[in-house]
Amino acid sequence: MKASLYLISILFTTGVFATTQPVAGKWITDLQGQTLTDPQSSGFTWRHGELIHLGDNSAAEHMRNKLLRINPHTAQLNAEPLNITVSSQVLSGCFGELFSKYPDFESLTWDRADDTVFITVTEDSSFVQLNADCKAKYGDTHSTDFPTLLVRIETDRNMSRAEITAVRPVQFPKSAVVGNAPNDGIEGLAFDTTGNLYLALEKNQANAPMIFKTTYDKDFWQQQGYVKVQDSGFILPVPDANNHPINGLDYLPAKKAGHPGYLVAAARNDDQLWIIDLSQQQAPFVQQMAYYAPTPADSACPAYEKMVQTAIEGVAVHGDTVYLVNDAWKKHYPDNIQCPANAAHFNKFAPLLFSLPVDPRWFI
User: Cβ distance 202 to 185 under 8 Å?
Assistant: First the structure.
């Protein structure tokens, strides 16, 4: 057995990591113990003691439109992937063509008033178009030609079925200048404890990430019109005008009574977590991360190797733990190959599960 505990001890006690948090991942595996092939992890949330995963439409075809149930301790699937079906009502509506194919799902959360309901959001829908009547009704998005869509996925507690039963288009404030960039849309969703749903935009026309919000109540899915989101006005720790997108989001309750809590945002390109104070009483805490992939125990390689390209796109908070999953960037994921025994995992775009404890410094 390798001296993995010794390695992790070195990682956490070396002075170089005074401001950088190293985390050692676990390969996510199927029921047979094999790493996953190209699921393109984009949606991630905690529910009923397990992590629920949803990939985008660049995943391998057998992994699209599937919910995965992941054991948070072992990183192994708890069941076979669950296919997401679509109701006839959605298929016959304005957005039916999109859902008859492979929507580009990004992010995943669940309804705090009804935990049998998941909510996701679509991003790049540029491969379909609205007909004339639907465009007249839903074409004024102040963003992309085909609207960003919030999507209701109805399940049951046993996760024996999953069906898309409702869809609502998003209208952004014109003043936000979101821009018509189909692949730079909403990549994070999170609920707070007071009925607000937050939507994290990868970047706007000025190349800057933004966080929007809307009220979510019991009548949300009965309404037919736009979800008119508002700019949260949050000041984000963006250092310059280069690409610093938000690619994942979840809510972190505060320890202090009366405080509204925090958002944990994954800044994928920077290997950072941004801890955003909903009260805006303090500047965002920037947590620099360093990600490590495990190597096989019978290889001659070190127990863990530092990744040079991780691309975190899923954030899930439960208790005092933050869980993260990466969405393999196909162009650069093989750049991680160092140990020959790990080459097959990186070449098949297999994701890893990372976890780290909530740091008390985040609340200062």
Answer: yes
